[in-house]
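INTERNAL AUDIT FORM
Audit reference: QA-55
Scope: verify that the stored structure record matches its stored sequence.
Auditor: D.O.
Record contents follow.
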Amino acid sequence: MQTATPVQRRATRPRADALRNRERIVAAAREMFVEFGPDVPLDEIARRACVGNATVYRNFPDRDALVREVVCSVMDRTSAEAERALAETGDAFEALSRFVHAAADERIGALCPMIAGTFDKCHPDLEAARLRCERLVQELMDRAMAAAQLRTDVSVGDLMVAAAQLSRPPAGTGCLSADRFVHRHLQLFLDGLRAPARSELPGSAVTMEDLRQS
């Protein structure tokens, strides 16, 4: 008696239209979190994404899942900008400057109220995105310090706090109309980072661990 060979089933891949819907939801949520804060109604996000409420809940069973995906998406896009700056810009400080301006365009300031939320900050996806982003920013700063172009009394936390604070005002206060000021003020900040330092900073360099413990 011959035993039939089991047929291996290929893993089912999401359909292209399902992936597009998910991407539209994340993009719409990111826009609305920037404009109105992380408590915007999910049905409004569905309307902005041009999908039904059921499609939102099929992809994201609760608000925390959607917020986490938006945070990961913003950090992934920010990391990609850091990688491009490292690969395409020969001057170390110009690479750092390019990254900071690109991070502002990603509106990383919108992450602050979302990260302060109740969702699991130790989720593996979130941890992986955070570690990748921090590693790349550290690489940008190390390269600029090695070239004696970046003052030595600053760290990644200093850079990320300033970029987040300057990238947009709080939600609901005309953040989109203030865009014309963002890159001007960021450039003033970047000029203050150049070596040699023209003043002594109070306190010590702020690391990302300092921020997490604060």
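Auditor finding: record pair retrieved intact. The CA atoms of residues 11 and 149 lie 50 Å apart.
Action required: none
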